[in-house]
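Operator note (shift B, R.M.): manual run for Transmembrane protein requested after the automated queue skipped it. Running by hand, logging everything below so the morning shift can see what happened. Input copied straight from the record, untouched. If output looks odd, do not overwrite the archive copy; leave it for review.
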Amino acid sequence: MDWSKWMRQAHRWLSIIFTATVVANFVTMAFGQPPAWVVYSPLPPLFLMLFSGLYMFVLPYVAKGRSAQRANG
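Run finished. Output pasted below as returned.
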């Protein structure tokens, strides 16, 4: 599996984990004040999704620049 495919798959799984932690957060809030670890549990997958999403956002521009260099070189 190449790097780009792996990054997309990881981003998808992180989004599932993030959604599950947010749902768990709301469920625990229905029963009162949730513990701090539940409140902050969505943050690690969110930050990982930030980096993987930025990578996937920049990838087409980097590929476009590389193909332009090859055409000119």
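Quick read of the result: The mean pLDDT is 90. DSSP finds three helices and no strands in the chain.
Leaving this for review. - R.M.
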